[in-house]
Predict the structure.
Amino acid sequence: MEQEAGTIVRVSTAFGPDYPVIVEPGVLDRLPVLLGELAPAHRYALISDDTVFGLHGDRVMSLLAGTGLRVEPFTFPAGEASKTRDTWAELTDRMLDARFGRDSVVLALGGGVTGDVAGFVAASYMRGVPVVQIPTSLVAMIDASVGGKTGVDTPAGKNLVGAFHPPRLVLADPEFVTTLPRAERAQGLVEAVKHGAIMDLPYLDDLERSMAALLQAESEPLTRAVARSVELKASVVSEDEREAGFRQILNFGHTLAHAIEAAVSYAVPHGSAVGLGMILEARLGEALGVTAAGTSERLSRVVRSLEIPEHLPPGAAPGEIMSYLGADKKARGGETRFVLLSELGAISKEDDWSRRVPAAAIEEILTTAVTT
Ligand SMILES: NC(=O)c1ccc[n+]([C@@H]2O[C@H](COP(=O)([O-])OP(=O)(O)OC[C@H]3O[C@@H](n4cnc5c(N)ncnc54)[C@H](O)[C@@H]3O)[C@@H](O)[C@H]2O)c1
Ligand SMILES: [Zn+2]
């Protein structure tokens, strides 16, 4: 099978050399060799959250130490609450104390939180040292580790302080997903569904057919999905790194998702909000005559198969969501930009990849989401 040899996706970036994303079960074993080729360093700082380090840290440490590479671990408490300037400050202080120099490389071993924080540490440490992303969650493999965005959350909002700092290498070993809790797998698969929905109907078909196996982290379908999602995301960010235009298509489902998350103070997981956001944005497109009839029904089915609720979470009142969209009644006549599908597998492009939608149409869709 083609996957056994692994899939290598090259991502181009204006911020440095092209970098490979290698998707292959067991590729972690090749980390020392790949570091020698693509990210040689005097010392390696292995940044990880305590959960992932507890599960996989020893193996990575001994892999590197066993080949004579100098590596030291720097861990922080798992969870989005750690994605802060405080964690960034603590990690950089600890690296300074340990006298890491300019000839160091940061290894980010973990989910998207680790990738974003460690990436930002690397972007700023001594004005920038290389980072190698070793994603261990599905979200990190198919989304966060590709594209070069790094950063932290602030009290004013998520991801508001950060930098573009593309990695030298992304090592996506689907075997990590076997220790990832099932609910976290589902969260990542939502973004895979999004990739299929915006760009690749056969991929969406494949995901839908394989969903039970994917949720169980079966190696073959999982590797195929990670590889295809990475290819799709890489093709988008290689074309439009700075989100000037085309990259916006990755925001499908996310305009409403972000407003829903804010309306419930992030009490709903991001993937669940995106699952619901995709269904509602498809309904919106259908109501506007932009999206083919039946699209939202099919997305509902896929989201249900991920064991993710397809209704608004308790406490997410339509009015509240509207206010977070900046399209509430106070801003009468307010409009919000949405990325809308023309059909599954294709975005509807008018003069731009997103289009303005009047507040009344959005409000109507949100109201149906409460009552159905
Ligand atoms: N930079 C980007 O382009 C980009 C894109 C998407 C998401 N993100 C960011 O990614 C974050 C979400 O990523 P996430 O869902 O991976 O969150 P996360 O890093 O918090 O990981 C989720 C949970 O799974 C655990 N975990 C990770 N891998 C594991 C494994 N193999 N086995 C067992 N447990 C494991 C983690 O410890 C954590 O508790 C958000 O902060 C989001 O903003 C960034
Ligand atoms: Zn997302």
Notes: The pocket of zinc ion (ligand 2) is lined by residues 191, 254, 270, 274 (CB under 6 Å).
